[in-house]
Backbone:
């Protein structure tokens, strides 16, 4: 068995709307090893959720269209070519997903227990009674008190954090090999966020599954992900292990994202940093680098040609023209080693 | 306890509503020019006319009549018909109610069943020719008044093809006999139900299908059929549940147009005739009884809601 669990190759997804074709994901490639946590980071509309849904084959086609040449290899099989029967086993059984808004993601007219059982009954030969017992165990595992009573309740009787725990219980039910967490903590307050992330981390260590963590919050990523992929406007602009991304960001966008994370040591005196401008319109994506319109270091060539992928240390690479200059730019982010020291 | 207070409050509101309806009906009828007897007494000697007026209390001042009528209502006595000698509201409803009810129930059962099936078809096959056909059909059915369909059906199936009798209604075995009489009126009346329920369910299902929990259901590996049966249908039936009891209540009141076209001696026809003849006791009585049924149905709907949608439970009700 190889180390590799998931391999996304040249994934491109477009939405066909009234205004034209929105190119949500533009040739994205990444891999996930067994037992690894990969974080996909980027702001709203950069295509990270679409990528997640595509891996689960949850996109509605149409309006979405997965372009020719895209490949998603799960254990060597192409998910995009799964037939109905294979897909039914894959979804929920081998790969599971957690959504951002747990209230919206749970059926309001079905008891929590039944929603968990559904998964179990579909993927194993349990009886209804056994499944219900398993559901109680699962609820206990995700830290819901009095699971015997709670299992008969409806989602609206749970608090926000508890609902997300229920979602996690549903996702864990059949011990999937891959868990996709699509902004699992965005709708929760900070203390609950940490608990939920811990829960996912613990389960992952126990089961050895892989996790793709999708978020726009770099703070969430820091101590859970081994590798980070930074997406912008449907493309991956930088990737690397989390140490190099946090301490040695190469792409101006990653750098700007890190600057936007509020710092505890500055107390209330800091002005929150933001990135000027808005992401480009993906109906007409810019010809050159997608970040060129907002980049502090934008050069002529950035607006004309797509930047090449520049490799740095092992596994760390960024797509930026800055690193193709004959003479390094004075204030460019790659001279930022100094900054990481005074942190 | 809270549940009890809730029911008591609802009951009070229902009674108040009925009171307002009765009062409004009374004064509206009183405000119309002429009265039930004016056409009849024209050629009678004054003494006889006076006696007739006195018999029905129409010679009294309006406020006195109002008080008399309302006290009568409280005791369940709506008074005798002015036009039809010796008939009371109760006897008329007892006699004509079942006729209208059978027609209404048949229309509704057929219409709602077909409507819901078409709605599911349109939602599941969204964007295909089936969807467009259902939408076009419901627009057609909802825009053309059922009177037109009634006449067309009568012309084609009774007149030209002679498959069914042109007019009439079974006299014996009022609930189950003489189905050949009921086919055309039932068809003519069910189109409205088909159109509204198909559109309602389709819109509701599409709305539910866009919810995140449908993605969750799909992500569990459930098939499309399972997702629709276990997750989409129940949630999209919530608007249907509000609509359905209203339709049931409408059944009993009868339909004036269809009853006229097919000469069905039902409530709807009689009701409209009573208004035209200013038969005040009958109009008052029917209005109050039908309103009471309607209000009770609305109340039942609220209770039904809590069964379909667990989020709506009467405050403090049992958990």
Residues:
């Amino acid at each position: 068995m190889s180390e590799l669990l998931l391999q996304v190759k040249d994934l491109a997804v477009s939405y066909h709307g009234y205004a034209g074709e929105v190119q949500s994901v533009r040739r994205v490639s990444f891999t996930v090893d067994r037992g690894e946590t990969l974080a996909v980071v980027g702001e709203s509309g950069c295509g990270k959720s679409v990528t997640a849904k595509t891996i689960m084959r949850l996109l509605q086609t149409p309006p979405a269209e997965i372009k020719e040449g895209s490949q998603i290899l799960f254990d060597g099989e192409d998910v995009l070519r799964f037939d109905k029967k294979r897909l039914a086993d894959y979804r929920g059984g081998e790969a599971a997903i957690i959504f951002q808004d747990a209230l919206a993601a749970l059926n309001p007219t079905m008891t929590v227990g039944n929603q968990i059982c559904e998964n179990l009954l579909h993927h194993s030969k349990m009886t209804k009674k056994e499944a219900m017992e398993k559901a109680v165990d699962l609820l206990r595992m995700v830290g819901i008190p009095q699971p015997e009573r709670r299992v008969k309740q409806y989602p609206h009787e749970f608090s926000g954090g508890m609902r997300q725990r229920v979602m996690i219980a549903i996702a864990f039910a059949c011990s999937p090999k891959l868990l996709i967490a699509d902004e699992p903590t965005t709708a929760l307050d900070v203390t609950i966020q940490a608990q939920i992330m811990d829960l996912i981390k613990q389960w992952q260590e126990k089961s050895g599954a892989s996790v793709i963590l999708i978020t726009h919050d770099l703070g969430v990523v820091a101590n859970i992900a081994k590798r980070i992929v930074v997406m912008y406007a449907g493309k991956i602009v930088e990737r690397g292990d989390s140490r190099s991304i946090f301490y040695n960001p190469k792409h101006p966008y990653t750098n700007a994202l890190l600057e936007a994370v509020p710092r505890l040591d500055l107390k209330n005196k800091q002005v929150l940093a933001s990135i000027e401008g808005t992401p480009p319109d993906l109906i007409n994506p810019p010809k050159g680098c997608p970040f060129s319109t907002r980049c502090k270091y934008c050069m002529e060539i950035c607006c004309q040609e797509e930047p090449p992928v520049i490799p740095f240390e092992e596994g760390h690479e960024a797509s930026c023209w800055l690193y193709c200059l004959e003479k390094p730019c004075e204030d460019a982010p790659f001279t930022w080693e100094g900054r990481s020291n005074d942190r | 306890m809270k549940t009890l207070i809730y029911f008591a409050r609802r009951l009070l509101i229902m009674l108040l509503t009925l009171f307002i309806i009765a009062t409004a009906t009374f004064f509206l009828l009183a405000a119309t020019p002429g009265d039930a007897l004016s056409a009849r007494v024209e050629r009678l000697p004054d003494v006889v006319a006076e006696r007739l007026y006195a018999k029905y209390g129409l010679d009294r001042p309006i406020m006195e009549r109002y008080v008399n009528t309302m006290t009568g209502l409280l005791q369940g006595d709506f008074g005798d018909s002015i036009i039809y000698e010796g008939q009371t509201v109760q006897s008329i409803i007892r006699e004509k109610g079942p006729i209208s009810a059978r027609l209404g129930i048949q229309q509704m059962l057929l219409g709602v069943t077909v409507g819901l099936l078409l709605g599911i078809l349109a939602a599941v096959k969204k964007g295909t020719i089936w969807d467009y056909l259902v939408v076009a059909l419901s627009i057609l059915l909802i825009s053309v008044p059922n009177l037109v369909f009634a006449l067309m059906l009568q012309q084609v199936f009774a007149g030209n093809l002679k498959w069914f009798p042109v007019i009439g209604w079974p006299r014996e075995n009022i609930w189950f006999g003489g189905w050949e009489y009921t086919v055309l009126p039932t068809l003519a009346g069910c189109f409205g139900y088909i159109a509204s329920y198909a559109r309602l369910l389709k819109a509701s299902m599409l709305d539910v299908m866009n919810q995140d929990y449908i993605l969750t259901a799909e992500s569990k590996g459930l098939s499309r059929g399972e997702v629709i049966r276990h997750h989409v249908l129940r949630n999209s039936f919530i608007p249907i549940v509000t609509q359905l009891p209203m339709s049931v209540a409408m059944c009993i009141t009868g339909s004036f147009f269809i009853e006229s076209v097919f000469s069905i001696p039902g409530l709807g026809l009689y009701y409209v005739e009573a208004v035209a003849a200013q038969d005040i006791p009958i109009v008052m009585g029917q209005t109050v009884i039908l309103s009471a049924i309607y209000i009770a149905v609305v109340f039942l709907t609220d209770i039904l809601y809590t069964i379909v949608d667990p989020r709506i439970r009467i405050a403090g009700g049992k958990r």
Observations:
- The longest helix of chain B spans residues 89-124.
